[in-house]
Amino acid sequence: MAGRKPLPVAVKKIKGTLQKCRTNDHEPKPVGTLGEPPEYMSDNAKEAWRYAVQHAPPGLLSALDAAVLERWANCAGMYREALTKINRSGVSGMLIKTPSGILRRSPLMDVIRDLALEMKGYEAEMGFTPASRSRVQMAQDAQHADDPWADIAG
Known about the structure:
The chain has seven helices and two strands. It has about 150 residues and is mainly alpha-helical. It is extended. The relative contact order is 0.16.
């Protein structure tokens, strides 16, 4: 999509700039439901999976999204584990001392950053952010495609 990313409808409402002609009337209505997370996932990843399924907007995720959700949940699980390790040590956990005595940033900080960037991509794909939810569109129903008045009457 070229140009500026569209603002979510909620933000447009707050700003007072919402116009019916600029809202997404074709939000997805996927079929099939996501079940339980795969058994081989870590406990943190399973928790992230369940949280996403429970809190995703109704009709946003379907069984077809399981592979993308799995990747996101695994990243989220590892992200939480890395943050837990850093948080246990406090600020000192963000730094390590090299054998020569020089302080440098902990490799866990790089892991956290990389996982956050990877999760951001999955979140945008699945509509987990306000801006990405406003861009998600779904094909029109067959009955609306044959109806010349569908665009006018809604």
